[in-house]
Amino acid sequence: MDAKEISLEEKKVKPVVDHLNDLLANYHIHYQKLRGCHWNVKGQSFFTLHVKFEELYTAALTTIDELAERILTLGKPPYSTFKDYISQSTLKEINTIGLLDTDMVKAIIEDMAALIEMEREILEITDKAGDDGTNDMVNRFMQFKEKNTWMLRSFVNED
Known about the structure:
Elements: H1 10-40, H2 46-73, H3 82-88, H4 101-129, H5 132-155
Helix pairs in contact: 1-2, 1-3, 1-4, 4-5
Protein name: DNA starvation/stationary phase protection protein
Family: Belongs to the Dps family.
Domain Ferritin/DPS: 18-157
């Protein structure tokens, strides 16, 4: 498929796809971090955070699939190897074993802030490309993280 088949200009879509692939790579690192937090959380907040981390990684998995499918819709292949995810991601892996629950939350807040920043950049690029479909999708992802950032910051008294 080609971007022109959905009324978009190929040269304007290339930067969109490049940034979507970078976002996809970062989401994979974020997703795995959430899984690690879910598996390894301990302490008085276990029941609360275990459920919240599962909610967040489930949403991240859906986002990953939507990103990959949007990249394909735009006529390009999505990254699909861990080598690509690790080399392209600006988010870094962390070892969640033994990590304090509040430190886990703070790590997720940092990831979300970085992802929101990437998404804001993509919104500018999609606007220039006239790519309303990608813009709407990314805006929805960003709104979810904005709300959850507020909730997580409140949890660790950083609001």
